[in-house]
Amino acid sequence: MLRYARSPAFLSYGFLFYAFQQSPLDGTWELARIFRSGPAPATRVVAIDSTVYVRVSLESHPGDWISGTLYRRYFGEPERSKVEAGPLRGTGRFIIGAELDHPTWQRVRTVAWAVGGRGGRGADTLRLGTPLVPGADSIELKRVRPDARYPATVVEVVTVP
Length: 161
Prior knowledge:
Lipocalin, 2 helices, 11% helix
């Protein structure tokens, strides 16, 4: 068995198997919309320095765990932390955890799920629960290139509860 494990064909199959195991979360994601509840429905554009902006880069690893980096601007104050994530078995959702420094130090966990699709590249929108942006009901991230410029604004959507 050991002589087969060293064959080029065996190694090629291993790399192919790993490629098909990639998580739909792999890549760089940036805040696109913030959802909040309010007395009247509205949509407005806000400057990223007047809210909490999020960009996260994620990479999957064998064993279904995901690591990455969270870049966050808390009302203009930059913050960076390590991210760990993993799948919620059988649900198509993931748990993402990070440590935040602003407004006070806290360890947060949120649920994330991929929506939409773009051919073989996977989902192009990622929805998350609330802890990364205080006061939000949920947030929506869009897939971007790792070297993409940071936007000047983000869309805030107010919905009636």
